[in-house]
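protien #1 (seq + structre)
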Amino acid sequence: MALPADSWRPAGVALETSIGTLVVELYWQHAPKTCKNFAELANRGYYNGTIFHRIIKNFMIQGGDPTGTGRGGASIYGPKFEDEIHKDLKHTGAGILSMANCGPNTNGSQFFITLAPTAWLDGKHAVFGRVHSGMGVVRRISMVETENDRPLQAVTLHKARVLDVLP
């Protein structure tokens, strides 16, 4: 499938979950390749019907894996792509949108949203956006009961919609 033009830069993505809708703003200026990956996967419907497979209270919620295991997912560039770490973007508090990975340059489709400052992730995970609206939804997702960080009740990402303008 063809990649979108470099001029395609939607402002954000709405994530319609089984708990509510949240909107994330994308940081195209600092992480254009990562933003394009996330927005195009959303545009293709790749995230639709996936679950938040990992929830760690006071840390983060993680999704974007079509297998629901935490071991799956590919990027629009192939299985993995390189990190876009920017010194000015840090995991400073709740609501930071960042790429999940299993080491340097192993970004695929998985992402996480922080629930608190997570400075130990700086320089290891690419920050590429933030929650623009719906932080209450993120908090409610974080309260779902878990066992070994896996939710006991499925939290489904029903639909991810690309937004040209933030609401």
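ok now protien #2
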Amino acid sequence: GRLLTGGSFKLSYYNEYKSYLRSRMGSLSLSELKSALSKAFSADSCSVKQIKQLLEAYNHQLRDYKEHCHFDDNNYTRKIIDRGNDKYNLALMCWRPGQGTPIHDHPEAECVLKVLEGSICEVQYYLPSGENQKLKEKCRGEARENDICHINDDIGIHQMNNDSDTDVCVTLHVYFPPYKTVNAYCERTGTTNTLVLNST
């Protein structure tokens, strides 16, 4: 979708935003990324393409985000860095070797992520059309440092795992609009249960 619709003020604002983005491309700090996201989402709408561009522009350095990193021995962690005035969430996820998510959806929302450290493996499944159906795998792949990924329920449901035996993984996610629960799917039967998302 377009960032803005109609109006001279909005067009001027859009041009200012594009100029700002071009001038900062490839050099945004975390605080500047947060400001750019806030500016983008203050418009009438914000596209997946724009969010990808902003994440591409984020020049991630460990010193920039390490205060938000938290690793747990039992499960991956999720920390909300910016709640985005209820228009989006910016979240940092930390994965020890072998940790991963259940198969889950993204209810009426977009998810765009950037890998900051290590690599993350994704398996996508088709959304089941009925109950008691084994999930059908759609595709699988690996995203490495600096790679950017996007998913929504039109694309499919997915599972993410750090398949490394030795290396941790850190990923940065933008969810819009934000949500507090997801549906987790059983691969064998396609049945679901509701999971409340926790953040550290």
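Confidence is low (pLDDT under 50) at residues 1-14.
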